[in-house]
Amino acid sequence: MSCKHFQVSGRVQGVGFRWMVRDAATRLGLSGWVRNRPDGxxxxxxxxxxTSLAALEAALWQGPPAARVDQVISGAAQGxxxxxxxxx
Length: 88
Prior knowledge:
This protein is 27% helix and 40% strand. It is α+β, with helices and mostly antiparallel strands.
């Protein structure tokens, strides 16, 4: 299992982005968390297999219908214990 940290910028707060991320991560069997940042971005850490992490990254670029994603930055993250994917 590997973990990735993502930071998503654009119009991503107030449009259901965190809920979309949680639903996608849960469907993909990923653990981790997602939260709004004070600067208007959304930040998340997701852990699971490489195929599921790639599918989540593709979903981040698409976002929910009301969102506008300008940038997705990803990098390695420290491992988390297995569990559900939560909104913080």
